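Table S4 entry, Asparagine--tRNA ligase.
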Amino acid sequence: MRGITIKEILAKSKVDEEVTLRGWVRTRRGNKHLSFIALNDGSTFQNLQVVADHPKFEEDLLKQITSGASLEVEGKIVASSGTQNIELQADKITVLGTCDPDEYPIQPKKHSLEFLRENAHLRFRTATFGAVFRIRHAVSYAIHNYFNKNGFYYFHSPIITASDAEGAGEMFRVTTLDAENPPRTEDGKIDYSEDFFGKETNLTVSGQLEGELAATALGKIYTFGPTFRAENSNTTRHLAEFWMIEPEMAFYDLQDDMELAEDFTKSIINYVLDNCMEDLEFLSKRLQEEEKVMKQEDQSMELIEKLRFVVENDFEKISYTEAFNILRNSKPNKKKRFQYPIDEWGVDLQSEHERYLVEKKFQKPVIIYDYPKDIKAFYMRQNDDGKTVAAMDVLFPQIGEVIGGSQREERLDKLEQRMDEMNIPKEEMSWYLDTRRFGTVVHSGFGLGFERMVLFVTGMGNIRDVIPFPRTPKNARF
Ligand code: 4AD
Ligand code: MG
């Protein structure tokens, strides 16, 4: 069955070679005597032009060659005056699956991304989503490659857990109990001892806590898996199910953590620049056309130029306090102030503040570190000032936060004290505290939002367009 792919043909086929190619029709044009069929098989952004001389084929067969139909073409590679220099002269065409043009939603024209989101099950057939999902694959490969080369072990943290790693309470419950009529304890609470797991469980919000157990034994590890947040955020940057990469390293302090974050993200971008140029060029052109249509005032840097700029320049590193002072003294816009006031030290930075810093003030990625402890998670290492923790966020232009991380609190007494202050049950987390009881060490880590990184490298505007089947509030159709 297996034939040759378009990628293989373009790489190594010679004129006169006989091939069998299978794929889906993108477009068909021609005249009474000839048809030019643009065939795509997903192996590359490029379509291969198939030329069918009408007298060689039955009229009924030719009628079935419409956009979306699947074909097997046997023929000969011939020279062409087109951009590819070669095309496929068909000797035999078999229609593997017909496609009714009146019903097929993906027409040979430009569809809006909103329309394609409604037809997410078929959008992989378009040039745009082909490019996006090939790049998504490349980013994922680049990540594994980077860690493997640098001595990190891929560690599988559980999807179902009994803990809330971020302490934010944004969890999807996992239970086998009858939702209408769950068993109750004497004081009226749901009795989870009757549950499948004998315990209240949820889908993981982060693999970090388990990752810390692994790092304090294996040295350097990373997780890469789906994570879940039941937050009701309807933005272009949030998903209820997203993929996260969480490296965790023993004997790394915050400085090391920040250096790793910068080197790691740059290596991903470099990989994409080195391996996905065709797809990037297409997406970049698409983006420029869109910006022209929307008549955007500040034309952002062209996509590929922007990616090169990020890898060639150092990230800006500033403390929360420095960021706070910059923001307090700046006017984002002549008429408008920030929607959220920034006049009291200790407030959390909103995305408008983060975007001001990366897009207006520094115009490059910014790492903010040493955040106020009251807006950060319990596990972060407390600084000597008593007010801040050794946390860091990496902010990217157009995206905002791509990474959140920290040096972890390795001192048992300080950690327990913080858990008490934040009402985090120590008994249930005794397994976690054991890392601090038995041979505790300085360690650090961070989490990269995979889809946010894919958004950045593809230049797409909405996170729903870089994950195959987006899960957002009220949306799980497929
Ligand atoms: O900042 P967050 O919540 O950090 C953690 O979960 C830590 N446990 C990470 C660690 O130190 N190991 O999430 C990390 C990153 C964010 O910077 C963001 O890029 C992404 O995950 N993220 C989301 N991406 C899409 N949709 C959401 N709802 C996201 N929430 C976080
Ligand atoms: Mg965060």
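The chain has 13 helices and 16 strands.
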